[in-house]
Prior knowledge:
This protein has 142 residues and is of the alpha+beta class.
Amino acid sequence: MKKFIVWSLLGMLAVGPVSAQKAGKGKQEVKEASIKFDKTTHDFGTFSEDDPIVKCKFTFTNNGDAPLVIHQAIASCGCTVPTYTRMPVRPGEKGEMEVTYNGTGKFPGRFKKSITVRTNAREPMVRLYISGEMTASEKEKK
């Protein structure tokens, strides 16, 4: 009889915390940011080595229910520089990321670069891509 009582008490102790955890989960609502870019690729087309610096903008929206923070944006090459909204972007609002490609000193031809964006959103990493073709200088041809 004593064994039955001891085992019954142990069983109740094991089940009690599990049911308390389940009850607590329903009460706590988790708010998350969500980032959605209007586009994730940009093609600069063809541009001359005489004017090697080109820029584009990527616009994003916070579709979540918490403020969105961009922690960092890292380009795959030193010739590509991203600048972005530093302040938290509130739910429903938009932000911008401007990407500058500097082809000075680079060989003419096609290029494709990536920008890795890290955020506090439910999708914490997004990759953006830029591409284009830089043609040889007209001054060298003469």
